[in-house]
């Protein structure tokens, strides 16, 4: 299938943000490990969160998707799987990495695998740290990459962990840590990638009753024995998904209001709004909705997006329509995602007529006269959504394999249709 995107004029649209992918993954895992029942309300039902849910079910956790909620019967810290299980995590890095440490809470070995691309996404630093904490982690194929087989126990204690490739390595150990035999103390020798996701992890853990001490992003201690308690857990809206909606106002002009976002969220992709404001948009966060409005021209900016990785492509798309160049830094770890995102973004923007310069950790976009092109998202939802939005300003855009948005934002195309934008 192909979605064709035509140029539209200034917009006046209102959307509801989809629920947060990161919060839904974590609430599923905390609820599955908790004592008692958990009701996750307004969860994200998308390909990736279904993969986490199915993984937990195969570990023996009863779980039910109901309209607008998920009911989870917690296993009190020991997965009841009756034997070895293999979990297919597709291309969901969060599923594979977060379940890696939790798998030590099963009495039987757990094999975690995924699709072809997932087998190229690293897990080595996580495996190394887990071994120090008592786990047996064996690489079934290429050392440092899935598939991995997890057995042994989560003894706990102190370890160092390098989160500079992915914060998910750190989140993984933190989320399982309340069920270690001893307290877990993690020291991060290097600045973690995507550090804001560690705030999301801590937020969910605290919400489920864990005790966690920390010094910024370089030291964490989780108390053993402070089990998660089942609860009703409402999931807030997703700032990464909302970025595509806000970007429509930035590239087309006019205004877009998005409801369902928490104004004091710790999600790092909130920073995308600061970027739009610095470029010349008006951003207002009211009680009901966050609104982005553009009446004049956009100017280029320089911004560090290391903590907001999932909105780098949205920002690159907006930057291509500005009046001056934009330099985005903190992009090194985007090469480990669903695709080599910097490479694909640079190549597509160049084909559209923009100038793009790439270094190891930055992306500089120099706007030029743009024209639409055919985009192969390489099965990367964020590439499809970012270039669809840019297509609304440029016209003549064709997005191949549009169903890849199922990963995080299954209603993306319907949302644009619903507001008459497609
Ligand atoms: O923990 C999470 O929920 C996520 C962490 C980030 O990954 P990295 O830490 O690998 O950059 C982000 O890109 C991903 O979409 C979700
Ligand atoms: C990188 C992403 O997800 P994950 O790491 O879970 O595959 C994403 O959604 O952009």
Automatic annotation (TrEMBL):
Enolpyruvate transferase domain ranges (all copies): 7-416
InterPro entries: Enolpyruvate_Tfrase_dom (IPR001986), Enolpyruvate_Tfrase_sf (IPR036968), EPSP_synthase (IPR006264), EPSP_synthase_CS (IPR023193), RNA3'P_cycl/enolpyr_Trfase_a/b (IPR013792)
Catalyzed chemical reaction(s): 3-phosphoshikimate + phosphoenolpyruvate = 5-O-(1-carboxyvinyl)-3-phosphoshikimate + phosphate
Biological process, per Gene Ontology: amino acid biosynthetic process; aromatic amino acid family biosynthetic process; chorismate biosynthetic process
Gene Ontology molecular function terms on file: 3-phosphoshikimate 1-carboxyvinyltransferase activity
UniProt pathway annotation: Metabolic intermediate biosynthesis; chorismate biosynthesis; chorismate from D-erythrose 4-phosphate and phosphoenolpyruvate: step 6/7
Principal subcellular localization: cytoplasm
EC numbers on record: 2.5.1.19
Residues forming the catalytic site: 310 (proton acceptor)
Binding positions (phosphoenolpyruvate): 21, 93, 121, 168, 341, 382, 407
PROSITE patterns: EPSP_SYNTHASE_1
Known role: Catalyzes the transfer of the enolpyruvyl moiety of phosphoenolpyruvate (PEP) to the 5-hydroxyl of shikimate-3-phosphate (S3P) to produce enolpyruvyl shikimate-3-phosphate and inorganic phosphate.
Name this protein carries in UniProt: 3-phosphoshikimate 1-carboxyvinyltransferase
High-level lineage: Archaea, Methanobacteriati, Methanobacteriota, Stenosarchaea group, Methanomicrobia
């Amino acid at each position: 299938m192909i979605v064709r995107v035509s140029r539209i004029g200034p917009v006046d649209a209102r959307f509801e943000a989809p629920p947060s992918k990161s919060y839904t993954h974590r609430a599923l895992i905390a609820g599955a490990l908790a004592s008692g029942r958990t009701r996750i309300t307004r969860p994200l039902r998308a390909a990736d969160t279904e993969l986490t849910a199915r993984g937990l079910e195969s570990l023996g956790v009863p779980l039910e998707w109901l309209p607008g909620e998920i009911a989870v019967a917690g296993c009190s810290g020991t997965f009841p799987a009756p034997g070895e299980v293999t979990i297919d995590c597709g291309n969901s890095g969060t599923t594979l990495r977060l379940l890696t440490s939790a798998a030590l809470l099963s009495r039987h070995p757990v094999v975690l695998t995924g699709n072809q691309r997932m087998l190229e996404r690293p897990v080595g630093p996580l495996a190394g740290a887990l071994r120090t904490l008592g786990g047996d982690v064996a690489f079934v194929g290429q050392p440092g990459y899935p598939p991995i087989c997890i057995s042994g126990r989560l003894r706990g204690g102190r370890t160092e962990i390098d989160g500079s490739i992915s914060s998910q390595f750190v989140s993984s150990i933190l989320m399982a840590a309340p069920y270690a035999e001893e307290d877990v103390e993690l020291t991060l020798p290097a600045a973690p990638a995507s550090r804001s996701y560690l705030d999301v992890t801590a937020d969910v853990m605290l919400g489920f009753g864990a005790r966690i001490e920390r010094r910024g992003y370089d030291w964490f201690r989780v108390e053993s024995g402070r089990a998660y308690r089942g609860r009703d857990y409402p999931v807030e809206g997703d700032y990464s998904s909302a970025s595509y909606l806000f970007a429509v106002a930035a590239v087309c002009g006019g205004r877009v209001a998005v409801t369902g976002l928490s104004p004091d969220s710790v999600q790092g992709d909130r920073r995308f709004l600061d970027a739009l404001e610095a470029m010349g948009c008006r951003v207002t966060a009211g009680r009901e909705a966050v609104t982005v409005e553009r009446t004049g021209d956009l100017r280029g900016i320089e911004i560090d997006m290391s903590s907001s990785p999932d909105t780098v492509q949205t920002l690159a798309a907006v930057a291509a329509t500005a009046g001056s160049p934009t330099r985005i830094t903190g992009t090194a770890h985007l090469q480990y995602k669903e695709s080599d995102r910097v490479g694909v973004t640079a190549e597509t923007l160049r084909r559209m007529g923009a100038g793009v310069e790439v270094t190891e950790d930055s992306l500089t976009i120099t706007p030029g006269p743009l024209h639409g092109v055919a985009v192969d998202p390489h099965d990367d939802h964020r590439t499809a959504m970012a270039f669809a939005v840019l297509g609304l300003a440029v016209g003549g855009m064709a997005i191949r394999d549009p169903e890849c948005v199922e990963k995080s934002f299954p209603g993306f195309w319907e949302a644009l249709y619903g507001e008459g934008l497609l």
